[in-house]
Amino acid sequence: MEAIAVEHVTKCFDSVVAVSDLSLHIEQGAVFGLLGPNGAGKTTSLRMIMHILVPDEGAIQVLGQPASDRTQDLIGYLPEERGLYARMKVREVLVFLAALKGLSEAEASVRVHEWLERLGLAAWSEKKINDLSKGMQQKAQFIAAVIHRPPLLILDEPFAGLDPVNATLIKDIMLELREQGSTIILSTHRMEQVEMMCDAICLINHGRSVLAGDLRAIKKSYGKNTVRIEYTGDDNFLDLPDLVEKLNHFGAVVEAKLRPGADPQEILKAAVARGVRLTRFELVEPPLHDIFIEKVSEAHA
Amino acid sequence: MRKIWLVVKREYLTRVRTKGFVLSTVGVPLFCVGIFAISLALATRKADHQLKISILDNLGGFAPQILLGLNEKLPDGRPRFQLVKAWDRPASESMAREELTKQVRNGQLDGFLEVPKGILNGDEATLHTGNTNDFQTARTLGRAVSNAVIGRRLSDRGVHIDNLNEVMHGVELTLVKVTKTGESEETGQSILVQVSIVMILYITLVVYGMITMRSVLEEKTSRIVEILASSIKPTYLLTGKIVGVAGVAMTQYLIWTGTATFVSAYGAAVGSAFRPGATAPSFHLPAAYLVYSLLYFLVGYFLYASLYAALGSMVSSEEDLQQVQMPVTLILVACMVLFPIIQRAPNSPLAVALTMIPFTSPILMVCRITVQTPPFWQIALSLAICVATTVGVIQVSAKIYRVGILMYGKRPSLVELLRWLRYT
Question: Which residue of A133, A177, A259, B289 sits 20 to 30 Å from the alpha carbon of B269, by its own alpha carbon?
Answer without folding.
Answer: B289
